[in-house]
Amino acid sequence: MFPAQTISQGALEKVKIATRKIADTFAISGPFNIQFLIRGNDVLVIECNLRASRSIPFISKSLGLDFIDVATKVMIGQQIDDSSLPALTNPMIPSNYVGIKAPMFSWPRLRDVDPILRCEMASTGEVAGFGENVHSAFLKAMLSAGFKLPRKGILLGIQHSFRPKFLYEAEQLNSQGFKLYATPATSAWLNSNGIPASPVAWPSKENSESTLPPVKQLIKDGSIDLVINLPNNNTKFVQDNYLIRRAAVDGGISLITNLQVAKLFAEALQYSGKLDCKSLFHYRWLNSSTAA
């Protein structure tokens, strides 16, 4: 996401200081990539890679600057005019638009693989979306990655520790007219908080005497066209949650398994009817005109 939307100015200053120290200490010339872990104002360096990352083409397009050309000239010792380039002390930050880089996955082609993200990279491609605000850019990026917006019903399966953090977003989804379905405990929690949600049967219970509707059938008949599944490995329903995620992928509907993405999606969904089709060049022109 560029520019950053949720990182404090204090944390950003620490990022700049750490970046300069690393570059100076290792006498780096050319492209390099640093991954930071940020919580509040605490900043930790995860790793530094002396190579070009996939962020470089994204940032180059976002700003209209060919950083690969610049980096290549620096690496071979060629003199460059850096007067128009951003620096740590003088960053180039768009004020009229936001860019978001989103991953693409091939879960439907990977039979029986659990479509949930872990530490290792699972994406097979990336797209970028640009908009006048974070919600617009987010929805454009998701749509470009093949994400289908829900029209009817949403199935929620929220692990206990995540529920307080998702209550407001669940209210938003309900207020936007979506029919909410939920796994048994999540359904009880939603209803106890005044958010109507119909319980569904766990996949392992579908062939028993359960009177609750089965998830696979609800997906098949189009009643559910989005699954938000936010589990952890402490639940006793690990296998059932996997079967729900897999049913979403195999049924050709959208799946969200990350709390931050789910929260931003619920916030952004209300703007889905207001998306513009302006080009990136328009946003860059608008930003340069404002700066001038």
Topology:
Elements: H1 9-25, E1 33-39, E2 42-49, H2 55-63, H3 67-75, E3 98-104, E4 125-131, H4 134-144, E5 153-158, H5 163-175, E6 179-182, H6 184-192, E7 198-199, H7 215-220, E8 226-230, H8 238-250, E9 254-256, H9 259-268, H10 280-291
Parallel strand pairs: 5-6, 5-8, 6-7, 8-9
Antiparallel strand pairs: 1-2, 3-4
Helix pairs in contact: 4-9, 5-9
Number of distinct beta strands: 9
**What is the CATH superfamily label of the largest domain?**
Methylglyoxal synthase-like domain
Intertermini distance = 25 Å
Second CATH tier, the architecture of the largest domain: 3-Layer(aba) Sandwich
- Helix proportion range: 25-40%
Largest beta-sheet details: 5 strands, parallel
Shape assignment: elongated
Stretches where pLDDT falls below 50 for ≥5 residues? none
CATH topology call of the largest domain: Rossmann fold
Describe the structure.
It comes from Thamnophis sirtalis. InterPro entries: ATP-grasp (IPR011761), CPAse_ATP-bd (IPR005479), CPSase_dom (IPR005483), MGS-like_dom (IPR011607), MGS-like_dom_sf (IPR036914). Residues 147-292 form the MGS-like domain. It catalyses: hydrogencarbonate + L-glutamine + 2 ATP + H2O = carbamoyl phosphate + L-glutamate + 2 ADP + phosphate + 2 H(+); hydrogencarbonate + NH4(+) + 2 ATP = carbamoyl phosphate + 2 ADP + phosphate + 2 H(+). The chain is an alpha/beta fold and 292 residues long. The protein has 2 domains: 9-93, D-amino Acid Aminotransferase, Chain A, domain 1; 99-274, Methylglyoxal synthase-like domain (Rossmann fold), CATH 3.40.50.1380. Helices cover 37% and strands 17% of the residues. It has helices spanning 9-25, 55-63, 67-75, 134-144, 163-175, 184-192, 215-220, 238-250, 259-268, 280-291, and strands at 33-39, 42-49, 98-104, 125-131, 153-158, 179-182, 198-199, 226-230, 254-256. The chain has a 5-stranded parallel sheet with strand order 7-6-5-8-9, sandwiched between helices. Strand 5, helix 5 and strand 6 form a beta-alpha-beta unit. Helix 5 runs parallel beside helix 9. The two termini are 25 Å apart. 24% of the residues are buried. The mean pLDDT is 90.
